[in-house]
Design goal:
The complex is a heterodimer. Chain A is of the alpha+beta class. Chain A has twelve helices and eleven strands. In chain A, a hairpin with an 8-residue loop joins strand 5 and strand 6. The N and C termini of chain A lie far apart (about 90 Å). About 0% of the residues of chain A have low confidence. In chain B, helix 1 crosses helix 2, helix 7 crosses helix 8 and helix 7 packs across helix 14. The longest helix of chain B has about 35 residues. Chain B starts with a strand and ends in an 8-residue tail after the last helix. Classes of the chains: A alpha+beta, B alpha+beta. Chains A and B meet through strand 2, helix 2, helix 3, helix 8 and helix 9 of A and helix 4, helix 5, strand 7, helix 6 and helix 11 of B.
Chain lengths: ~375, ~425
């Protein structure tokens, strides 16, 4: 069999038109393509040639031991030779896999399902496992930076009377000591632009804003919020979120490879959507924990529903007052949340408190 | 010879010194169409412009088009033998004198690449990432092998095992770095500092690895820049960005590209780079002004429409502005870099258009998002094809005289570390 191609001597960029010939005994020789029949060096057994894998219809390279190179477009003939000499089985298999439409379609489906499924479900499960396996102390520095920043920018020292603070702190401790794996610490801040809110750090430090304390019409409502925040700590949400976000970035970047042909939005958008989904999942888990917490402590779950509803109203008022003060936007906010639930960090309010109301009815 | 039919293949590019407007008027005259139509024909490169003609007709057409200033070649198309070039070429190593323009050809196909890409991803997943080193080589070689200049294509010669070793170390380093910096922030800061210090070394190793594993006509490319130069241009100089409020950014870009190109070589022959900082400032001025305008516009919108609505409306506006920004920069820088690079008397011309780049970026982004990522190979092929279409090499005499250089093998560690930590360094 004669294969047409170009021949480059080692270390030189000039080429000659040649034909590669492999005889019956497996010896490969090169001949110039013009008339005469002279064989030109190098010659060697076919088995000693380094043959590049087939890749679509790109040129094939055959490299001799001394660095001389033979380049050909005639992939079909090279493949025939490889088959008859039983060489490059793996590479031939790869080419077959890449060429069969059925395999390609199966691959497409499997890859899409795997990547999205793994990102949405696998990553949280693995993160949860890792977070659970780490000692509680590993989270102690997490999130600290965020509080420091908020103290410098938004928060102001609490203006609650100290006996109120002490009373609440003792109250909170009495319920929190059941979770002895964690050491809790409670403090208060004036929320300012944040308004009524509560947040929990992984090391057990839980902060209530003065506005949240004022918003509550009954201390049991604050206990309901406490339950939700303790849920974040016990379930190690911040640690899991950090692990999930890292894993997600690695998965998306490694799978998609180089996407310099498009804007970075192609990585950013899926990441953001998934991270928002993760966030909603965490809030749901904390709500579940709050529910169990209230039941276990014989407190009516409706307290949670009440304060959450009041909280939503107060947040809307706050938004209306602190920003441009355009009236009548409250309705728009709610519609936006309903229409685009996947853009929200929290599950929709109505859904959240539904069960806290319903179960209460059954209890009574 | 009796049955031989011929076709006229328009490789692309006008002959040096010919202006598009003149060529278009001449062509319009010959064809009896209007100038706009003639311009379109001239711009549509790398295709068969006339087929199934006999030798006499072929020569007539070719000489006509040659008078217009278009670079064409006559090919014989005889049945099963496919296409072989009749016009004289460099095949027989006889010295060719004079200057000629050679188009950079890219023959990749979206669907063909998609098949390779998707199967390789599946195999990488099944092998828990081990096969990914082989996938990387295959993916890269698809683009290398389908790119050719003057009838010869490129080869990516990296060995997958080398990449696998580098990748394993890099991934472990990344995991350790991520874990430590979350749990022990102080230690994390120290590690980040260490990373910054080895950054110049990573750049040099990465560039060297990729250059030495790129081959054309049996001769490898090379990168001989030293770590000191990398330190100056990629570490020390960027520090000045803050005190100068970013104003030295174009100068920084100039210095970095200058470092990379001047230290690159093909065999024993060095590339040289003759751009000047002023060209960079000219390129960045327009987008900078545009960005300022967009920022002011978004701020005004917030006043008029209120914060919530403004943030919903301004988001697509900002994204669009960003796309236009990067499209314009990519086109301008791409052209500047090739136009300013020479290799021992051979030069390049790149004619990327900002409008087209922006459109490609935009449609690529939309396509990828709406196809759940499956159109990534299509997007990549599109972009590379456009860049190749706009690139011409000016060959002086011949490309046969290059000699290979002595090179030591570079391990893939630097290059893989750069990849895993998402450090992108390239001149193109």
């Amino acid at each position: 069999m004669l294969i047409d191609g170009k021949f480059y001597r080692n270390a030189s960029s000039s080429s000659q038109l040649v034909q590669l010939h492999v005889d019956a005994s497996g010896f490969a020789t090169l001949k110039l393509s013009n008339a005469d029949d002279r064989a030109i060096p190098p010659c060697c057994p076919f088995t000693e040639l380094d043959i590049s894998p087939r890749l679509g219809n790109t040129p094939r390279y055959i490299v001799f031991k001394n660095g001389d190179q033979f380049e050909t477009m005639d992939n079909a003939s090279v493949d025939k030779l490889l088959v008859s000499y039983q060489r490059s089985k793996v590479n031939r298999l790869l080419y077959q896999l890449e060429s069969r439409i059925l395999i390609v379609m199966i691959a497409a489906v499997l890859v899409v399902v795997f990547v999205w499924g793994f990102s949405k479900y696998g990553v949280p499960v693995i993160a949860s496992y890792i977070a659970g396996a780490l000692p509680a102390e590993s989270s102690q520095y997490l999130g600290q930076g965020a509080i420091d920043i908020m103290d410098k920018t938004v928060f102001k020292p609490s203006e609650l009377p100290s006996d109120r603070k002490q009373a609440l702190t003792s109250l909170f401790h009495s319920y929190a000591e059941a979770y002895s794996d964690y050491s809790f610490q409670f403090s208060f801040r004036k929320g300012g632009n944040i308004g009524a809110n509560a947040m929990a750090l992984p090391d057990g430090h839980i902060i209530f804003t003065d506005e949240m304390v004022a918003l509550a019409e009954d201390d049991n409502e604050l206990l309901a919020i406490l339950g939700h925040e303790i849920g974040h700590v016990v379930h190690r949400h911040l640690l899991r979120r950090v692990i999930q976000d890292s894993m997600l970035t690695v998965v998306l970047v490694m799978i998609t490879g180089d996407v310099s042909s498009a804007s970075s939005a192609v990585i950013a958008m899926p990441s953001i959507l998934l991270e928002l989904a993760f966030s909603r999942e965490f809030e749901r888990e904390a709500d579940d924990f709050a529910y169990e917490f209230l039941i276990a402590n014989n407190i009516q779950p409706v307290y949670f529903a009440d304060i959450m509803q009041r909280l939503t109203l107060s947040q809307k008022e706050l938004a209306a007052n602190t920003k441009s003060g355009v009236k009548g936007r409250d309705d728009k906010d709610e519609t936006l949340e309903e229409f685009l639930p996947y853009l929200s960090t929290h599950p929709a309010m109505k859904q959240r408190i539904q069960r806290f109301k319903v179960q209460t009815a059954i209890q009574q | 010879m009796g049955n031989a039919t011929y076709e006229i293949y328009y490789r692309g590019g006008l002959k040096p010194g010919i202006i598009l407007a003149d060529a278009a008027s001449k062509l319009a005259g010959y064809l009896g169409t209007d100038k706009a139509q003639a311009e379109k024909i001239i711009k549509a490169t790398n295709r068969v412009i006339k087929s199934k003609v006999d030798k006499v007709q072929a020569e007539e057409y070719a000489s006509l088009l040659d008078k217009v200033g278009m670079q064409v070649e006559i090919r014989s198309t005889s049945g099963d033998m496919g296409v072989s070039r009749v016009a004289a070429n460099t095949e027989n190593a006889t010295a060719r004198s004079g200057n000629r323009d050679v188009a950079v050809e890219f023959n990749g196909q979206s669907f063909e690449y998609f098949k390779i890409w998707i199967v390789n991803i599946l195999l990488s997943i099944i092998t828990l990432g081990i096969y990914s080193a082989w996938a990387k080589v295959r993916n890269k070689q698809y683009f290398y092998g389908n790119t050719s200049i003057d009838g010869s294509s490129f080869v990516y010669t990296a060995k997958p095992i080398a990449i696998l070793k580098g990748r394993a170390v890099a991934v472990v380093a990344f995991v350790v770095y991520s874990a430590v910096s979350e749990i022990f922030p102080i230690a994390g800061l120290i590690l980040t500092l260490v990373f910054f210090l080895i950054f110049p070394w990573l750049i040099v190793r990465s560039l060297a690895f990729n250059a030495r594993n790129s081959m054309y006509r049996n001769i490898r490319f090379n990168f001989t820049g030293d770590v000191g130069g990398a330190m100056k241009n990629f570490l020390a100089l960027p520090v000045l960005l803050i005190p100068t409020l970013g104003l030295i950014m174009p100068y920084l870009w100039y210095k970095q590209t200058d470092y990379i190109v001047n230290n690159s070589a093909y065999g024993t022959t060095n590339f040289s780079f003759d751009a000047i900082p002023k060209s960079y400032y000219r390129i960045f001025f327009i987008p900078m002004a545009g960005l300022l305008a967009v920022a002011v516009l978004s701020y005004l919108l917030t006043f008029v429409l209120g914060e919530e609505i403004a943030s919903v409306v301004s988001m697509p506006v900002v994204m669009l502005a960003y796309l236009v920004f990067i499209g314009y920069i990519a086109a301008s820088l791409g052209n500047l870099h090739f136009d300013s690079s020479t290799l021992a008397g051979h030069g390049f011309t790149s004619s990327l258009q900002a409008k087209q780049m922006v459109w490609i970026y935009f449609s690529n982004t939309l396509g990828i998002l709406f196809s759940l990522g499956l159109l990534i190979p299509w997007a990549k092929v599109r972009m590379v094809r456009y860049r190749a279409e706009c690139l011409t090499m000016h060959v002086h005499n011949s490309l046969d005289d290059f000699v290979a250089a002595e090179q030591e093998n570079v391990s893939a560690l630097g290059e893989q570390m750069s990849e895993v930590f998402d450090v992108e360094i390239a001149a193109i």
